[in-house]
Amino acid sequence: MYLRILWVLALTSLLVLLKPDDTQALSLGYTYRLVDTSSSVMQLSSVTSKQILPVQQPQVVKDSALVFPDYLERSHIISVYEKQVAESPDSSILLRLLTDQYLKRFREVGDVEDVLRAEEAARRSLALQPRNNQVSSMLLASALLSQHRFQSALNVLDDTETADVNIVSLKASIQMELGNYEATHQLLQRLETESSKANKAVVARYLELTGNLEKARQLLDEAIEETNFYTTSAETRAWFHVRSGDLAFLAGDFTLSKQRYQEALDLFPRHIAAFTGLARLYASEHRWQDALNAANQGIELMPQVETLSYKANAQLALGDQEGAAKSEDLIGVVAYLSKVKGIYDRALAVYYIEHGIHLPEALQIARSEVAVRDDIYAEDTLAIAAAANGQWQEAHKAAQRATRYGTEDALLQFHAGMIALHFGDRSEAIKRLTHAVKLNPQFHYKYADEARQVLANLSHLTP
């Protein structure tokens, strides 16, 4: 065991010092709507910082894809680095290595204290070595991103005196989270000759948001093929599979979507987003017991709002009113903790809107989110929140902004279509709703059927 830990220490040290690809990929990943570890109670959980993940026999995703459970050694590695930093507090390199491990454990376990430790260690490293220390700058930006401090993360990278493509790529991902898609496009032009898996993930996200879902899926699949057993952590590898699963869901390819989520769990058995993705997929198919099972597995690891909402919906569908009420109570606890921490959770606003409860609060959350993170999905949340509160002009404006790039997400198209219908724009409503159903016939457990019903009603009306 000791030799194994030493081997992992040597390997991870080399990776952080020479190739921050792994750090970059996950920095961008956890700011996305469906893979958002900093939202909800994940940031607020009471998981102990020294928790070690349970030993589980890893499976093989593909015959050629080895699975190394590096996450099982994470806390041991951290304890070694913490001791070395204590003995050599002026070593910027050791602080950099320690920062990277804190961030890895945060992504694996979800303890917000690890993010704060990472931020502190990265700042210490940069204080000791202000120049030629771009890896620490990226790590600091990653820690700030995990706290949804987007502008602060961008400022850190803007202060970095380098044209390194990894910095450029990470800046592009932050600009996307802020809704600055034109600035993102300009940055991505500088990555045309760069083909790393992390950069492909950034470009794929941009293509996804700007109406080229098919190409985005191709790039992510290429990135999956490029992930290496020796140079990429299990959790990071799983993240690429989750993202591929998310995009397959958007495209209505449920078979591949489920496969990707299962592959992610084979690589990293605690991947919350994989369980949440499965719960969403099963709910869309009205496979409520399967949705409940997947949601429960995710909630046992970390009670996030989105996962809890799928559990509550499944319980209601299965006739478990008492269980659904308890799930709703837990969502209320998460909502309270989010307020205390100043975290605005889109999933909470969406849950309120879909269930017709706390609508003024949902609108407040949506407006606050736009103020901090004015991306496409923030605008979409604002659109439905404003509509639910009768603020139709605000809803219309937000829906137009949410769909201005032709994002191939059926839910966005459905929301825009229903808002257009309210304004009597029959042709626009038909166009949006038809597009939604064509993109993904089962895009939502409730709204997909509603879209088809509205289209059927409109088809019987004279133009």
Provide a short characterization of the protein structure:
TPR repeats lie at residues 410-443. This protein is mainly α.
If you had to describe this structure to a student in words, what would you say it looks like?
TPR repeats lie at residues 410-443. Keywords: TPR repeat. The structure is a single chain. The protein is mostly helical. It has a domain at 271-332: Serine Threonine Protein Phosphatase 5, Tetratricopeptide repeat (Alpha Horseshoe), CATH 1.25.40. The chain contains 24 helices and no strands. It has helices at residues 2-18, 21-29, 74-87, 92-109, 112-128, 134-146, 150-158, 165-177, 181-188, 197-209, 213-226, 234-250, 254-267, 272-284, 288-301, 305-317, 321-341, 346-355, 359-372, 376-388, 392-402, 410-422, 426-439, 447-459. Helix 4 packs antiparallel against helix 5 (112-128), helix 7 runs antiparallel to helix 8 (165-177) and helix 8 (165-177) runs parallel beside helix 10. The longest helix has 21 residues, at 321-341. The protein is globular and about 75 Å long. The termini are far apart.
